[in-house]
Fold each of these.
Amino acid sequence: MTQNSDNAPLFKRVPSMCAKCMALLDHEVVSMYAKGTIKKVRCLTCGTEQKYSKEKAGKPGKVDPARDFDLLNEKFSGNKPQRYSMTGLFKLGDVIDHNTFGRGFVVSALNKRMEVIFSDQPRILVFDRKEMDI
């Protein structure tokens, strides 16, 4: 992890291809080299740690939302879907049921926005909004 001027660790996220999920997902930096380059990352979806590769970080190759959806559907098949609502609370790994888009899987959630993989394409949705925020 990187550190600020007080030597307190800072949480850093980077996009990277997960070797287990086989999708471009957010990863948490686990360790860095002395030069400040990223050494290891941990997938925020499955928890797998792997070496960070800058070449694979932003290049998923052919993006196939249906394949990503199928992999996530298989992985989280036992989870009961929650009804999506902008006022609802969601976290990484939740399965949602959206009125328009159908079943989806939360692959990242930060600052009241979440990325959800649906069968046709990923989408950014809002959550944890109070009535005044809507």
Amino acid sequence: MRVCHVVEAAGGGSGQVVFELARYGLEHGDDVTVCYAPDRAEAGFVAALESLPRLRLLPSPMHRPVGLHDFYDGWLLWKTLRRAGPFDIIHGHSSKAGALTRLAGVFLPGTVVYTAHAFYSMKPDTPAIYGWLERILSWLTPCVINVSKGELEHSRGLGIAPSKLFLVPNGATPHFSASREQARLALKAKDGQILCGFVGRLEAQKKPLRALAAFAQAVKLHPQARLILIGDGSLREEVEAERIRLNLQDHCEMLGACDARKILPGFDCLLNSSDFETLPITFLESLNVGAPVIAPPVGGVEEAIIEGVTGFVAQDFSEKALGDALERYLSRSAEQRQQMSASTLQHAALYTAEIMGEKYKILYRALIP
């Protein structure tokens, strides 16, 4: 097959999925191209793609904000794909690239498919027009791929035709650049200390202040707990100020933007506090290091969390509910937490990059006329 992946937000979880799909396709004999927005591409994402033999990389500008420039960006994308094609499958990833790909695909040969990696309409208080646009754009493709059961339910709520909806959960490669011992040594973890990790952008969607408040509640009863925050963003100063206000300096450390794969193996659990998710790669990476997930009832918890076995789900999105869920984990004995870690590692085997790649390959073949 000749497959082209189109991605605008070239980094983070969607970037990792694109990389894994490109790698899997190449290893199984496909001709694979990745078209990306150079202004939005993280250096690590591009470097990872450049390491893949026989992969063709095509830059094409795509701007994140919605505006008149989208018509020009769509035209440039059409020209790029027309010159590089024809393709059997043109796969648009995330909202902006997905929209431009579906519009350009009307005038191109090949089957266009779309994975949202979290619809923008999932964001709380989002204007209804974004949901309407997703429903209208769904008319331009035979396939809208959802990466979690929660996202699939959202797609149905948008009014997208059921015949177009497919579920292919995300997968991750269990490869980390440090062992648990090395990671905990780098974090200067003390014996008996329980390391709770937060991994994500310090932005409104991820609600890092909710994570701080939940941890502040739980640490009062469990002083052996320590919170490690990985990530950067516009809320960094606010998070730092709140950390001081809550007097968490001795129990909470902010590492900023860094390679989480060097740190994750040292975590005992992952603390997620987002307003919305699909099936974030951080969930899957945590499973792969044996770290149970503590999270609000966001998308992806149905796949990642078996209550009391691979993690705990908060009753709602409040700070107290998330703190209560974290307390349920911290209250477990060392032996019980070790058993949860073993169960988490077993559960991770259901969500590998290989399983994801094979499901996409089967779906691609079924969609080619």
Amino acid sequence: MLVRSVSWDRTVDVVVIGYGCAGPVAAITAAENGAEVLVLEKQPKETHHTNTSMAGGSFITPTDAKGALDFMRALCRITGGQGISWTGDSVLRSFAEYSATNLEWIEARGGSAFLSPGPVDYLHLPGADSLPKHRFKGLGVGLVKFLDGQVQVRKIPVLYQTRATHLLTNGRGRVIGVEAQTLQDGQNRKLRIGASRGVVLAPGGFEYDEQAKLQFLKVYPTYSSGSEANTGDGLRMAVEVGAQLWHMHCLSAYLMFKFPDFPIAFAPDYRGRQQLRYAKGDEAVPIVSGHIIVDGDGKRFTSENLNIHGIYYELPYFDSHRLIYPRVPSYLIFDRRRLENGPLPSVTVGPAGAARLYQWSADNSKEVERGWIKTANSIRGLTAKIGVPADNLDRTVKNFNRYCLKGHDPEFGRKQANLIALENPPYCAMQLWPGAPATMGGPQRNAKGQILGADGSPIPGLYGCGELGCIYGMLYPGNGGHLAQCFTSGRIAGENVIRERVPNYRRR
């Protein structure tokens, strides 16, 4: 929003919008470099929860920057694109260099994290073996406590219940401050806050902006297991000042459980708690309870040895004759063994994770009673409850059980270790919807964290970090990828915003 003259309610060096992971990291970094920083957070302090608090607390910790760069280059390369990449090389190089020192940055400030098992996704890409992960004790909640403590020690003020609505610019297009709505004494009040060095946008994505999801994502509806506060505020503010957008249809691409009587989606745990045995000669494939995934026609359409961060991209198939997306929703079909093998959603991430926004029953019985899990004593009985063609699903399950007996899946090549027949009633079904913990699209930023305008040049005084305009393209590297780039992009934005030229401000 262009302002010719303005009387500020307050001026500081740097305004950070959003208080998840990247926002606090940017605020801490700027403050350590001598800046006066103010953080704006639209949620109330008492009920504040973000994607970070609902995350698993893992972050990628490269053992060498070169390996990380090789991996990121391969991850962002567009197949058949003749060298075209989702993300510019200078941005990838910056991520690789900074992510290799994230753990050092945390430990230098009194934090600690332990080596976390499990590799990144896409192990066949070069450099993948140089990307171990670390995890905070207490998962995402533990990470939030650490960052909040660092903010408090540095006496960085956080204005809760203060929603940024507009970026303020001068006649030369420089971002000079923020307009916000704050709740004081039960009344909404408009604030105008000057930012003499610049503004850092870190408000999260647009997971709960239905219009943005409809317009930008590959398939609708798409649900999220992240915070309902992510309503696309930063996206609208950036567009208003002419920001270039990138990665708009990209996300960490899941299937999700979503129920009408609960606002947040759940990330499935397909395997259950008994998942630590490995098949001899079948490397890194855990023995799990049996399940299949079928479309609305009751047919399998993929191998259930799926990449959980990429399966979403198989869902936008559109039947132009019936005018439907046959895979939206899809269905998870399983039997008693998985029903009795621990909670069906992840209890590490999302609303049933460490944030404890929902307490899922250990034996899934409460969710059966709620109708979230459909059960029947026969496959044909199950079809009547979920509305898929009975003959199709019955045939699909019989074929799958035959593959399990033979130890070979001729349709989709599912790993032999995971060919476990469905033969122990009750048979169960849950709807699976397109979803993700986080969107990736937003304003494009360069290697310095500067947000770029439509002509590709930086918008003076405006920086971005975190999920909004995240560096990843269509493919997400796996658990630990988002928090790694939140740390790196927050550090980069915090370091560079303080180098901005200071205009003259009239302070109050």
